[in-house]
Amino acid sequence: MRADPAKLRDFAVRYTAAWCSKNPSSVAAFYAPDGSLSINGRTASVGREAVTQAAQEFMSAFPDLQVLMDNLIVQEDCALYHWTLIGTNTGAGGTGHKVRITGFETWKINQHGLIVESRGTFDQEEYLRQLEHGIGTPE
What we know:
Layout: H1 5-20, H2 24-28, E1 31-39, E2 45-46, H3 48-61, E3 66-74, E4 79-88, E5 98-109, E6 115-122, H4 124-133
């Protein structure tokens, strides 16, 4: 991969803005046509249509979704995009609770500067706790 770190940082800033845009196809545009997104080891969403659907699920669950870029670490064969997601679960069937979770995606980028593979990771247990109780609320 070994992309130019400055270009990759710009890519990550624009990717973050896409997540905040409320337009899931904007997120998918950062993926190669056959690119994949998997979260916490679940079955990958493969292709832009599937990535659009995955992004839409988060955007629907959290209509006030904000994603912050915390860091970007460029390695020889991948990049680590660290993020914070903030939102209130007021979508259909939502709990009404606010969440603030951190995680990261491990990206493999192709020669065209698009994501061919993104493996996302976050603390699922903490996410579920916040959905049930909100941020910083004791169980």
